[in-house]
Amino acid sequence: MLSEHRDEAATSAFFARTIKTNGWPEKVVIDKSGANLAGLQNINWLLLLYGWFWLIEILQVKYLNNTMEQDHQFIKKLTRP
Quick one: which of 19, 48, 67, 80 has the most CB atoms within 10 Å? Predict the structure, then answer.
């Protein structure tokens, strides 16, 4: 299980690498994971400290993972013996 404080540095590094590779996002949609939220907030705070006021909008959807898993439900039924 991810915790907000333990994995904040790891998620900050992950989002920094992702931004460097894929470009700057206007908004990021995440689930209710505390580590993801803390990492993105950390990046936004660093941007404010460096005088950059175009921040990343963070959208949280509580059951985002559940809806994605349900999309695969039909495929799982077809592949079962």
Answer: 19
**Local confidence band at 78 (pLDDT 50, 70, 90 cut-offs):** low
CA–CA separation, 12 and 78 (whole Å): 39
Closest by CA to 19, choosing from 11, 9, 30, is 11
Report the alpha-carbon angle 52-28-13, nearest 5: 70
Region of poorest pLDDT, from 1-5, 21-25, 70-74: 1-5
Spatial neighbors of 4 by CB under 8 A, at least 6 apart, are 34, 35, 37, 38
List residues bridging with 57 in a β-sheet. Answer: 27
* Contact yes or no for 2/31 (Cβ under 8 A): no
pLDDT given at position 1: 47
**Residue 44 structure tokens:** 């936004």
